[in-house]
């Protein structure tokens, strides 16, 4: 498609996948369409409130007030995933189980001369009279076979649809995992920088507190020159109020211990977070989509076989 600089509006379809159920929506839009307009549509279509929507395209988060062109959308080779932030909270409920809508196809009515009269029903020859019954039985079995084929086709299409939705959810997990890894690395780096800075300052402050008494004694031992001495000032310590310094040190020591405890709690919480994230990255999906896909494709031969039988009987 042409770029904006050439004066041509980039028009196309935006493919949006719902992460929690695998449903997909295709929107007609252009590069000037605001992300908020897309969110409004998704709110009515999916039931996910706008404030709970998190739209991701690869590692980019789509902001409501920006146009799609800011993310080089719409694009045929890019898809957007909608995550429900309400589902991401630790105490949130799971989505309701998906209901597979299967259209029930009724069996054909049993053959009856009253429903399908035939000219040979009143034939005197028993052999001729039996022919309509044979024809009705054959037609009934053909119709019943057609119903079985249609039921198989409906169920196969339902399985194929669910497989597509599972693939969407698999890709959504990959996108979410990549996004989580990106932000986790940033948080981890900030944590390491904080711990490094804290360790240095903690050691420096500890040294000041531990050496306070020695510093006081040094100030006390530094006598002033006789010409500078007065009745109230004999040493350097006399230039400061020792009681105020002592009170300040006690306050600093208390704050030092409190902050040390807070940092210890923070390290423990971050350790738990780190463990959870690493377990999440190392865990495997509970289902194996490739195996399921192979099974569904393998069962397609039964559908082809039934179709061949119906074509032969036609």
TrEMBL record:
Question: This protein's superkingdom?
Answer: Eukaryota
Q: Where is the Autophagy protein ATG17-like domain?
A: 148-311
InterPro entries to which the protein is assigned, alphabetical: ATG11, ATG17-like_dom, Ubiquitin-like_domsf
* Pfam (any one): ATG17_like
Give the GO terms filed under biological process for this record. Answer: autophagy
> What are the UniProt keywords, alphabetically?
Autophagy
What name does UniProt use for this protein? Autophagy protein ATG17-like domain-containing protein
């Amino acid at each position: 498609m042409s770029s904006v600089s050439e004066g041509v509006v980039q028009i196309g379809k935006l493919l949006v996948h719902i992460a929690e159920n695998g449903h997909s929506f295709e929107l007609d839009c252009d590069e000037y369409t605001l992300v908020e307009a897309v969110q409004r549509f998704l709110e009515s279509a999916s039931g996910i409130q706008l404030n709970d929507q998190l739209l991701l395209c690869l590692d980019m988060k789509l902001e409501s007030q920006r146009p799609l062109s800011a993310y080089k959308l719409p694009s045929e080779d890019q898809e957007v995933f909608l995550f429900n932030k309400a589902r991401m909270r630790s105490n949130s409920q799971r989505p309701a189980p998906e209901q597979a809508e299967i259209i029930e196809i009724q069996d054909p009515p049993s053959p009856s001369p009253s429903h399908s009269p035939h000219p040979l029903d009143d034939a005197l020859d028993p052999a001729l009279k039996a022919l309509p019954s044979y024809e009705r039985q054959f037609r009934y079995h053909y119709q019943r076979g057609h119903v079985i084929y249609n039921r198989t086709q409906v169920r196969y299409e339902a399985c194929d649809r669910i497989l597509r939705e599972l693939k969407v959810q698999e890709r959504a997990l990959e996108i979410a995992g990549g996004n989580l890894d990106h932000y986790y690395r940033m948080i981890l780096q900030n944590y390491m920088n904080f711990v490094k800075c804290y360790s240095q300052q903690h050691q420096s402050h500890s040294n000041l507190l531990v050496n306070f008494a020695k510093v006081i004694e040094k100030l006390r031992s530094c006598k002033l020159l006789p010409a500078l001495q007065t009745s109230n000032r004999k040493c350097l310590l006399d230039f400061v109020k020792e009681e105020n310094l002592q009170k300040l040190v006690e306050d600093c020591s208390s704050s030092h211990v409190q902050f040390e405890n807070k940092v210890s709690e923070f390290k423990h919480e971050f350790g738990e977070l780190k463990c959870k994230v690493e377990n999440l990255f190392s865990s495997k999906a509970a289902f194996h989509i490739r195996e399921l896909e192979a099974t569904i494709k393998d069962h397609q031969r039964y559908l082809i076989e039934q179709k061949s039988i119906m074509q032969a009987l036609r």
